[in-house]
Amino acid sequence: MKTFGGPVLFLDRSDINTDEIIPAKYLTEITKEDLKPYILEDLKLPGFDAKGPKTRNARVILSRANFGCGSSREHAPWVFEVNGITAVIAESFARIFRQNMFNCGMAAIELPKADLDQIFSHAGDEDASMSIDIQAGTMTMNGGGKQKTFSFEISPFDKALVTAGGWVDYADKNY
Amino acid sequence: MGKTTAEKIFETHLVNEPFPGTKVLRLDAVLCHEITTPIAIDDLIRRDKDRVFDPTKIKAVIDHVTPSKDSKTATQAKILRDWARRHNIRDFFDVGANGVCHALFPEKGFIRPGYTVIMGDSHTCTHGAFGAFAAGIGTTDLEVGILKGVCAFRQPKTIRFNVNGQLPTGVYAKDVILHIIGKIGVNGATDRVMEFHGSTIDAMTMESRMTLCNMAIEAGGTSGICMPDMTTVEFLWPFIQDEFASKEVALADYSQWKADADADYDQVIEIDVTTLQPVVTFGYKPDQTKFVVDMPDSPIDQVYLGSCTNGRLEDLRIAARILKGRKLAPNVRGILSPATPKIQQEAMHEGLIDIFMEAGFCVTNPTCGACLGMSNGVLAEGEVCASTTNRNFMGRMGKGGMVHLMSPATAAASAIEGKIADPRKYL
Description:
Strand content of chain A: 15-25%
Distance between the termini of chain B: 46 Å
Radius of gyration of chain B: 21 Å
CATH superfamily of the largest domain in chain B: Aconitase, domain 3
Mean pLDDT of chain A: 95
CATH superfamily of chain A: Aconitase, domain 4
Low-confidence stretches of chain A: none
Structural class of chain B: alpha/beta
CATH class of the largest domain in chain B: Alpha Beta
Mean pLDDT of chain B: 98
Helix content of chain A: 25-40%
Order of helices and strands of chain A: EHHEHEHEHEEEHH
Distance between the termini of chain A: 22 Å
Strand order of the largest sheet of chain B: 5-4-3-6-7
Oligomer: heterodimer
CATH architecture of chain A: Alpha-Beta Barrel
Radius of gyration of chain A: 15 Å
CATH topology of chain A: Aconitase, domain 4
């Protein structure tokens, strides 16, 4: 099973949409790898640089409510995947984006706002890093010499998709 | 306890419940376009599973960028075209016969009450106007849908909207849905079906109901759903007359999909439209809405009439009525993209195209085009568009561009005045 974790990219805003994650003009790319340079290209946030090292090194994204709203484009999870980001943690997700993540064998994890606030307090830590254990339903935040573990729930189906490596393999075996 | 429309559809289409809370449904229609389908096709080929579950239940169209604008979009079109031929998908619509998916597929009679419909496109919720459960999904769900004819869903809860009253002059389905989204927010219906009831909906045409359901996703909704009635039957009659002895028989059959009076709802929201005014968005989220009268002195560079939301004949008629004998304001570009070839042809026969062209509009072929900034009217940095489309995200119609969502009537009035304008003075 895939492991989830690594440096965290903090995107402190609600309603980050799929057009900000990957603009429609790049949807004409035929391979997922070709999407790589365009990650979060249209996202405007104070201190955020789509081309900077924090984006390049990230393995986990932390954000707020309604992450991934808008289009059904699976190019949004794909552009994360080809950039090495395999988990997004947020207060809530748009339905299609959330399902697309699990369908690709990646994780979209919801946390209560109070937990997110604690994790966001590490946004200034250069070494901010998260390790996620899908089976145990726990994630551990490391940064600024501190460590804290949070528990989360994902549905049994989503867990099965992560274990199977995605919906195509699962569906092919079961339907 | 009675059932909602979505609950009835889930119950009758259930394949199994592999885990608590996850329901795998049998699909009646799998719709495809050239942006989200080619990667699914490539993946199926790579897995040595280049098959389709039922070619008669798969419908495909090239619509987002058509005719192709460059070699990349031509390649996407070719992948879809070759695949449709290879698998004998007869309902495939290519250049000359193609139009915006959510206008074209209903026009062909492909969507029926009680259907389960998926497409790799978020505005698939449009088809709920027919009393169907219709949901946008990603490429992986589409791939499994193509291969196996099933899709997994969490059982959605339903929000019931009781929309009542006669729409005032100059106020349309677009204003109603923008008002609703403004009221409940961009995630007000996430993981929910939006079921529309009430005298306002009963009086709406199928075109208006499609406009209404089309934007359910902008509130996060899984599907918009209207109750099937005689309006639904009349619309579908050319396609179903061999299946039913009479329209009354068809209506009786379709009525099985109506929500029960004692169904259990997550929320019930009352909307009185009698005091509603023309609505427009002002920010980069579809829930940032105002009345047009509260947006004075908002200049525009372009007007765009079209899309799966408002590119139907009814929309063109409303805009043409306002534009007749008038001209675009100086320095404003007008673009009309009728949503399907049939709409374009009928608009031509009715003289609507003449009205638009005499007003100074450019009339393009049916395509999704500028709505998502792919072709045919992309904005430059700092430009503003008055648009009948569905999404006003930053950069949606072109990097640095701004989109104000509105009805075709408001767009037409804005075209004349060169700023966001109230259509009621022209009606």
